[in-house]
Specification:
Blueprint (H helix, E strand, L loop, with lengths): L7 H15 L9 H5 L17 H26 L7 H15 L14
Helix pairs in contact: 1-3, 1-4, 3-4
Amino acid sequence: MGPVPEGLSAFVRARLDDEDRDADLFHEPSCRIAVAAGGTRPSGPLVPAGCDCPVPERMHDEVGLKRLTVRDLEGRIERAPDTAPSLDAVIALMALKALALEYASHPRWREEWRP
């Protein structure tokens, strides 16, 4: 099957980087850190010590799993021969495009990536 469509992997990885960075912004109203800050969300690159919100950790975990999935899908696509793509490679390409579809409203989205 050959290489992954140009830019698709980089696009998905960049969106995952965005999600990973932004995950630290989500705090419950009852979070000790948010209450101490007067009910506002703390800012900064990391979840502050003492934060007991489950959302940032869950979001980081989900991004990590998506990164592993992207690597696996890329490998399955790359290993397929150019002359006769395997069903596994075709399914992997469609799955990668499906992951990217979540970000179709992003300005860098390309319609050729649509599954």
